[in-house]
Specification:
globular, 10-stranded antiparallel β-sheet
Length: 634
């Protein structure tokens, strides 16, 4: 295929998605997306501006097609393998500005979405890729009903509500976090990015030209270069992350997608040591010891949490802030803090040994800048102590320097056989596929906000399944067992309440993806508590994931399989409802379903059992702000 064949089109393997690449007389390339014969993305320009000048007007040298179909084994995620099946066009172009000899636009089409990026190869005549701006368009073919998080600024913890917004109301000065999700008639889509490296993270803004759709915006580098990316052009070339448009019949169908991960490289190291699991946690519920004592970050309190984790069968116990020598609070980074040493009243080797006797391993919280200051020494020490993983916090940025920090830290952690949980994190871009030791991350407004606000509503929780979770795992920190109605909920820092039912909370452990799952409340509240038996048995990684039913802001039902067993989670908004769970996913055979669903009070559950088969449906009664959980065994 050569330039004379433009416009060129490429179809998804199932034929439902068609992307067309065209070019106008000014040399501008455009792409458009149609799914199920309905336009989703109207003709939209590919644009990029380098330090040396604009390279958007081009002459096409060649158009090269290929098809790839491969199975990829997954580690510690929502499925045991992913099919990586796509058709691709590589459009090799020469910029009319003659800034470089040539570069490429690469377009891939999967059954569940479209991805594209530009790549500057090593023979293009540049040694360094210096990017001033990337104004590629996502032009909408209609005034879609969308849902997004207008984060408002570049430096943030990426924690907030995803609210409804008409496409025509997204302004040029807005700063929308990823993903932006939209319903487009018979189709639904989510905009994200993948394989983020050597580049600043992407936000979205209105186009500002009177047309529907959005364009990228990026935080600048911190070196006053006014660039969004700066990278050496090595043997593999250099370019942008993948710009991703996930596509399906509904937003819920995208919960099953592995597209973001498939656009990232596989790990290049042994992953057999990576163990997902659940953890007790000493921070969310506040200082705790059995009455009448009140503990803090000290040996008696931490041993009590370790005892609880061991008794419950949890793999881990998280030691949060305050353990290290001269530790600060929150995001502070005192000049004299030392994250290689524990404070005087904590004997870390003894604590690790105590936990080992209970078959529990420890994680440590650490502020990111303190860790950066002592990274090699700290990781050496944590490995020497026998620490399982680290929770790194308060990055609150996604400029290129911070993106580089993630890659450096997570790779070095893997070399030390340390697991990672990033807090104050930017939205996922599939980095956990390349580094499976990167089990989970925050970048979500989760249960901690119950401690100081009324913002964690049932509607918010449901919306996360159709928005933030589409991009990857999220450390929401579920497990709050002091359940209240919205009317009786109180903002209490310690111990905090939640304004959803026990059934809603159990549903989170299935619906919300996180290979490292917190059990956030204090041990006393779980003693003989209804539903804790489900938390003890539910896995944190899965062999298969199925979206069953739901809609953003209304309700969600997700089924996940581990081995021969299925688990189902249901979560509803503030309205009571009855929902049906068709069991066709079970396949042949006879099964037993154990059901935990809302009782007459927020902390109560109705627990029942019944025999079921693939031809049956289960009916669940969800209370206001309610939910349910099911375990189905052969």
């Amino acid at each position: 295929m050569n330039a004379a064949t433009l416009p060129a089109s490429v179809k998804s393997p199932d034929g439902k998605i068609v992307v067309q690449i065209a070019q106008n007389d000014a040399g501008q390339l455009t792409y458009s997306v149609v799914r199920k014969n309905a336009p989703v993305i109207a003709p939209s320009a590919f644009r990029v501006n380098l330090k040396e000048g604009d390279i958007s007007a081009v002459d096409v040298r060649n158009v090269l097609p290929r098809v790839v179909d491969q199975k990829r084994k997954l580690v510690a995620t929502k499925a045991d393998e992913a099919r990586d099946f796509f058709a691709e066009l590589t459009i090799d172009v020469r910029p009319r500005s003659n800034i470089l000899t040539h570069f490429q636009w690469i377009v891939r089409v999967y059954d569940d979405g479209v991805a594209f990026r530009y790549l500057v190869p090593p023979d293009a005549g540049l040694k360094t890729l210096s990017v001033r701006g990337e104004d590629t368009e996502f032009g909408f073919a209609g005034d879609y009903d969308c849902t997004g998080f207008n984060v408002g600024r570049f430096n943030s913890s990426h924690e907030g509500e995803f609210d409804p917004i008409r496409a025509s109301r997204i302004r040029e000065h807005n700063t929308y976090d990823l993903p932006l999700v939209c319903n487009a008639g018979v189709n639904a889509f989510a905009i994200g990015e993948a394989s983020l490296a050597d580049y600043g993270g992407m936000y979205l803004r209105g186009r500002g030209d009177g047309k529907l759709g959005v364009q990228p915006r990026h935080s600048g580098r911190l070196d006053d270069s006014k660039l969004i990316a700066l990278a050496d052009i090595g043997a593999a070339g250099a370019g942008s992350p993948w710009r991703v448009i996930m596509l399906g019949d509904t937003l819920g169908n995208l919960i099953e997608s592995n597209l973001i991960g498939n656009l990232n490289p596989d790990p290049d190291f042994d992953t057999s040591w990576i163990k997902p699991g659940k953890t007790a946690w000493d921070w969310w519920s506040g200082p705790w010891l059995p009455p009448p004592a009140r503990g803090g970050t000290d040996m008696p309190t931490l041993k009590a949490y370790i005892d609880f984790a061991g008794k419950s069968g949890f793999e881990y116990m998280m030691v949060d802030e305050g353990w290290c020598l001269r530790s600060g609070r929150g995001g502070s980074a005192p000049a004299d803090a030392d994250v290689t040493q524990a404070k005087a009243d904590i004997d870390m080797p003894a604590l690790v040994a105590y936990a080992a006797k209970k078959k529990v391993r420890l994680w440590l919280w650490v502020q990111w800048a303190l860790l950066d200051r002592q990274m090699d020494a700290a990781l050496d020490q944590y490995q020497k102590w026998g620490i399982a993983g680290i929770k790194v916090d308060f990055m609150d940025r996604n400029d290129q320097q911070m993106v580089d920090y993630y890659h450096k830290l997570i790779r070095k952690a893997a070399e030390h056989k340390l697991l990672i949980d990033m807090h104050g994190a930017y939205p996922p871009a599939g980095l956990n596929r390349t580094y499976p030791n990167y089990l989970t991350q925050e970048g979500v407004m989760g249960a901690e906000y119950n401690k100081w606000s009324r913002r964690i509503t049932a509607t918010h929780n449901v919306s996360l399944a159709f928005t933030r979770m589409l991009l990857g795992p999220m450390d929401y920190t579920p497990g709050g067992f002091r359940n209240k109605t919205p009317a009786t909920f109180e903002v209490v820092n310690s111990p905090p309440n939640v304004q959803t039912t026990r059934g809603h909370g159990l549903g989170m452990f299935v619906v919300f993806e996180s290979p490292f799952q917190m059990v956030a409340d204090s041990p006393d509240v779980y003693e003989n508590a209804p539903g804790f038996d489900f938390i003890r048995m539910v896995p944190t990684t899965w062999d298969e994931t199925r979206f069953i039913a739901g809609d953003v802001d209304q309700y969600v039902i997700v089924a996940r399989r581990k081995g021969r067993d299925w688990y189902v989670g249901a979560m509803g908004n503030e309205q009571a409802r009855t929902v049906k769970v068709p069991l066709a996913f079970l396949g042949d055979g006879k099964f037993k379903a154990q059901i935990w669903q809302d009782g007459s009070a927020p902390t109560e559950l109705n627990v029942t059992q019944q025999n079921v088969g693939a031809g049956d449906s289960l009916e669940l009664s969800l209370a206001p702000s309610g939910g349910a959980a099911i375990r189905i065994t052969r």
